[in-house]
Design goal:
Shape: elongated
Largest sheet: none
Distance between the termini: 25 Å
Number of strands: 0
Structural class: mainly alpha
Strand content: under 5%
Radius of gyration: 16 Å
Number of helices: 4
Length: 124
């Protein structure tokens, strides 16, 4: 079983580092649209990394399986990764895959809801 708490912590560290880079390293070379993409990617990365931390704890407590964590992590990589890539010069068609990452994130949260409703040891 993967250490999802550790993976979440790595995601949060990456979010802080990339947020700082966006605020200081890109402000003079990126367009306002690119900076907006970077900001959105960083926000979603940080928020979902915090969610992944909670999910990792629930996995350790054996309330849920790893499925939610996988869905969230794949979503983070696709969603934030595509926005970061476009900011750094990747073709704009990368924007077409961004929503796929969002769908994975939504699926992760819905899977968490279904999992906790179905759990015999439901969290009260």
């Amino acid at each position: 079983m993967l250490n999802w708490v550790g993976i979440a912590a790595i995601n949060m560290a990456i979010a802080v580092a990339l947020g700082a880079f966006g605020a200081h390293g890109l402000k003079n070379i990126a367009s306002p649209q690119q900076l907006e993409w970077w900001h959105t990617a960083t926000l979603y990365l940080l928020v979902h990394a915090l969610g992944l931390l909670l999910v990792g704890l629930l996995i350790r407590l054996r309330y849920i399986t790893q499925t939610t964590a996988w869905l969230l992590q794949i979503g983070i990589i696709i969603f934030a990764g595509s926005l970061y890539s476009m900011t750094l010069g990747a073709p704009l068609w990368f924007g077409a895959i961004t929503p796929i990452g969002g769908i994975f994130m939504i699926a992760g949260w819905l899977w968490l809801a279904v999992s906790t409703f179905k759990s015999k040891d439901s969290i009260s």
